[in-house]
Amino acid sequence: MTDHICMKCGKRLMSDEIALHRKLFGRGAQEFMCLDCQAEYLRVDRLQLERVIEMYHKSGTCVLFAKWE
Ligand SMILES: [Zn+2]
């Protein structure tokens, strides 16, 4: 995957952060935010977003997230 940086704070992004951004803000997104900025934008705890990521990984229902064994 090519390097992406957070469009708000400039931090380098993990693929999970990009996947979650696509999930929450639409798959056509070209710019992404890190977990911290997504949490701030959505006014939720970063921990809640981490739980969402974990849930998608475990369920394997979303193609954006690789399934965790
Ligand atoms: Zn950020």
Provide the fold topology.
Layout: H1 15-25, H2 35-42, H3 46-59
Helix pairs in contact: 2-3
The structure holds zinc ion (ZN).
Structural notes for this entry:
With 69 residues, the chain is mainly α. It contains three helices and no strands. The chain has helices at residues 15-25, 35-42, 46-59. Residues 6, 8-9, 11, 33-34, 36-37 line the site of zinc ion.
Short description:
With 69 residues, the chain is mostly helical. It has 3 helices and no strands. Helix 2 (35-42) crosses helix 3.
Described by strand count, sense and barrel closure, the largest sheet is: none
Q: How many structural domains?
A: 1
- Number of strand elements: 0
List of distinct ligands in this structure = zinc ion
Helix-strand makeup class: mainly alpha
Fraction in beta strands: under 5%
The Rg value, from CA coordinates, equals 11 Å
* Spans where pLDDT lies below 50 across 5 or more residues: none
Q: What is the helix tally?
A: 3
Helicity level, as a percent range? 40-55%
- Calculate the mean pLDDT score and round it: 89
Cα distance spanning the termini: 22 Å
- SSE run: HHH
Apparent shape: globular
